[in-house]
Known about the structure:
The chain has about 150 residues and is of the alpha+beta class. Helix content is about 50%, strand content about 15%. The relative contact order is 0.21.
Amino acid sequence: MTYNVIYDGNCNLCVTLVQLLESLDRGERFQYIPMQDQDNLQRFGITSQDCELGIILLNAEDPTQRWQGSDAAEEIGQLLPLGAVFVAAYRALPGLKWAGDRVYEQVRDNRYTLFGKRSTTYQPLYPACDTACQSYFSTEAQKQPK
């Protein structure tokens, strides 16, 4: 199963995390769409206002299945080798998930101040919508009444 990660391609922290994921995963599970790519976001019905609420993770086979913000980060963590153990421990410790959600919100809302803003949007090594979108949208087009 593959997933599309929608991230802020102008945020230094976001880009660094995407680059880390790219090096770990090598495009096997995750493909990426910068939130500045309005054409691809529009295909999924995602607005720039949606993106301001944090990273978005979409199931590429069923884009209606999505996670956002700290939930997306946790889901990504679970999908990485040995990540499920750490995410389960994080969720099990009383108060840690609540605190993690608050920290995520603060970082999200202050990311440019804390980590800086890139002068150009990072273009991922493993972009989404090369084949996954084409197959999804051609299937959807076949379902539409003519």
